[in-house]
Fold this protein.
Amino acid sequence: IKFPYSFTLGQANVMLPGTMFDGPITIFARLDKDGDAAPASGDIDGSVVTEVGDQQVEITLNHLIGS
């Protein structure tokens, strides 16, 4: 992966089918060390709260899991 990493989110990305994609929303990102979807010691994550339609949203990966 090359940083900064560009991403786009929309209605197709909601976690629960039938849920409306409206804000505010929290976006979580994690750089995963072992390839498992579950967070584990050594992974790095971060989050940001934003509104639907916002552009140029930046998520800072600033939390080391297990520390």
Q: What stands out?
A: The mean pLDDT is 90. The CA atoms of residues 46 and 62 lie 6 Å apart. The longest strand covers residues 25-31. The beta strands are 25-31, 44-50, 63-64.
